[in-house]
Amino acid sequence: MNIPAQIPPAQTPAGQTPAVQTPAQIPAVQAPAQQVQVLVNHSRTPQALLRIFSLNANSFSRNFRRLNDKKYITGRSLLQTKIKEEGRLLNITNRYVISESTNRIWKGFTWTERNVFTTFANDIRTSITN
User: Fold this and answer.
1) What is the rounded CA–CA span in Å between residue 110 and residue 99?
2) pTM for the predicted model, two decimal places
3) What phi, psi does 92 have (nearest 5°)?
4) Which of 43, 46, 105, 125 sits in a 20 to 30 Å window from 33, CA-based?
5) Are 43 and 92 spatial neighbours (Cβ–Cβ below 8 Å)?
């Protein structure tokens, strides 16, 4: 996964690797920009990437069952759904934070990574009855 240039790496003392913050370590009154950075950093961990790229067609089909929602099923919307799930693990539910994190992560994906979500979105749209 390519890391976009506009997102600086986490600030850590020399020689130490940044640790992912657990929900207990995240202050309740954290600024949205800090929450975005925490969520983006968290989503780059191997465990989070595994959860993000494990896509289940049945769960998404149930969520988008109504025909009106069919046109809103895009690769980015599926990614945003997965980022919402990751945000819930960190007790982050702010819509702005979720949206901004999704934008940064989507921009950091390669075309191949984006195509995983886009192809999956096409499959879900075709599986919903017309």
Assistant:
1) 19
2) 0.68
3) -110, 115
4) 46
5) no
Q: Cα–Cα distances in Å, from 67 out to 36, 60, 73, 86, 118? A: 32, 13, 11, 27, 19
Task: Name the strand (E) or helix (H) holding 84.
Answer: helix 75-89
Residue 6: pLDDT band (50, 70, 90) is very low
5-21 CB burial, b ≥16 within 10 A, e <16:
eebeeeeeeeeeeeeeb
Give the DSSP letter of residue 66.
S
Question: Looking at residue 91, what is its pLDDT?
Answer: 87
Q: Where are the domains of the chain?
A: 37-127
What residues contact residue 3 under an 8 Å CB cut-off, 6+ apart? Answer: 9, 44, 108
Token pair for 14: 């020399």
pLDDT of residue 128: 72
- Cα distance between residue 6 and residue 8, in whole Å: 6
